[in-house]
Design goal:
The complex is a heterodimer of chains A (237) and B (137).
Chain A: H1 2-18, H2 22-26, H3 32-45, E1 86-88, H4 89-100, E2 105-110, E3 113-117, E4 122-124, E5 137-139, E6 143-147, E7 151-159, E8 164-175, E9 179-184, E10 191-196, E11 199-210, H5 213-218, E12 222-224, E13 232-235
Parallel strand pairs in A: 1-12
Antiparallel strand pairs in A: 2-3, 2-6, 4-11, 5-8, 6-7, 7-13, 8-11, 9-10
Chain B: E1 23-30, H1 38-46, H2 48-54, E2 59-64, E3 71-76, E4 81-85, H3 91-103, E5 116-117
Helix pairs in contact in B: 1-3
The chains are: A alpha+beta (237), B alpha+beta (137).
Biased composition (Low complexity) (chain A): 38-48
Biased composition (Polar residues) (chain A): 49-67
Family (chain A): Belongs to the bacterial ribosomal protein bL21 family.
């Protein structure tokens, strides 16, 4: 116990010296904040003599792996599928071509509006998304089309969400400049000014990935015979 | 030989790999005497410690500014500064204003019509009349 507290004091000393450089402090991440808070609680329980100075002791790089989110309160909603993914033979045979051709796009739908996304895109939604915080990672699971340079997978209505992964990160909230609309009535000197200043959620696309047939089989996809209305991959003509 | 400029290889796309909050510093200014600072003083004593604890990536400075209205100023990574005057506001409203500054990207407010801005090249390429199948009208 004693040695641990000594170590901690050493670490905190190091932290103090490291804090002279601005960058490591800036590089700490939003989602590690909660992690850090829980760590702080743990450390304060074990009677550390130092004030809790959080910054550079925690891991700075963040992966999109779900394992990294253990300490976070808000866990993703677990999917509830009642049947395994059914993939036709023809789709299975042509999927490697699509998955192998590297830059992909996805036409993700959000409130019935299509958004054509590629990796690294900056999205400014036309509305303020409720119940999200800056730094949250969302997975878009509703897509009407996936594609690469030469191939397109169009869903009959939507593409099954187990065929692809599209993650976005909420990077903040922006607002538009104040709009002033003058409202006038006839034969009247009075003008009413209506003001509006909407706020919009801004996001960044983290990855757009189409799963390979091997991954699908690993996740329990079932290969079925072709039907007329099944999703197909179309080649560019 | 023509002079070639150095092409930029990468562009900063915050949030693709790591995500860094754009707001790096919040300055809270208050006046000890003025009545418009009453809500701010309550905010500084009651709400700010929790706010600061929840957002360890933001540097928080509190400083008096005599004979002036209370104010919150945000400094952003891109070098911009945004300030909001919080005179006569209640602590809850001041927290909302602080959240606005925290979530802001630091860019100038703009009206945009397109939801997506992309640095990537078009995935499917540009259409060419000389390639692909012949199609009847």
């Amino acid at each position: 116990m004693f040695s641990r507290s000594v170590l901690r004091s050493l670490v905190s000393d190091l932290r103090c010296t490291a804090s002279a450089a601005p960058l490591p402090q800036r590089a700490c991440l939003h989602q590690t904040a909660l992690l850090r808070a829980s760590q702080q609680e743990a450390s304060s329980q074990s009677s550390s003599p130092n004030p809790d100075t959080p910054l550079s002791a925690t891991p700075r790089a963040q992966t999109s792996q779900p394992d990294a989110h253990q300490g976070i309160k808000k866990q993703p909603v677990a999917p509830s599928f009642d049947s395994p993914l059914k993939v036709t033979k023809s789709l299975m045979s042509s999927l490697p071509h699509l998955a192998g051709q590297s830059p992909h796009y996805v036409v993700a739908e959000l409130h019935a509006r299509p958004y054509l996304l590629t990796e690294g895109d900056h999205i400014r939604l036309p509305f303020l998304m409720p119940n999200v915080k800056t730094g949250d990672i969302l997975r878009f699971n509703r897509a009407s089309a996936l594609g690469s340079r030469d191939f397109t997978l169009k869903g009959s209505q939507h593409v099954d969400e187990r065929l692809f992964e599209c993650r976005v990160r909420v990077t903040g909230v922006e607002s538009e400049p104040l709009r002033i609309k003058e409202k006038t009535k006839r034969r009247q000197r009075h003008t009413k000014t209506a003001k509006s200043k909407h706020r919009y959620t801004i996001m960044r696309v983290m990855d757009v990935r189409i799963k390979t047939p091997e991954e699908l089989l690993q996740e329990g996809a079932v290969v079925v015979e072709d039907t007329a209305d099944a999703t197909k991959i179309e080649a560019k003509s | 030989m023509p002079v070639k400029g150095i092409r930029t290889v990468t562009a900063a796309r915050n949030g693709v790999g790591a995500f860094i909050l754009q707001c790096k510093r919040l300055d809270f200014h208050y006046c000890n005497f003025g009545g418009s600072s009453r809500g701010m003083l309550a905010f500084l004593t009651q709400t700010l410690p929790r706010f600061a604890k929840e957002n360890p990536q933001i540097e928080i400075r509190v400083s008096p500014r005599h004979q002036k209205h209370p104010m919150i100023k945000g400094q952003y990574i891109n070098g911009n500064e945004k300030s909001i005057c919080v005179r006569n506001l209640e602590p809850e409203d001041i927290l909302k204003k602080a959240m606005i500054l925290k979530d802001a990207s630091g860019d100038k407010l703009k009206r945009t019509k397109k939801p997506i801005t992309s640095l990537n090249e078009s995935v499917r390429g540009i259409w060419s009349p000389y390639h692909g199948d012949l199609r009847g009208v």
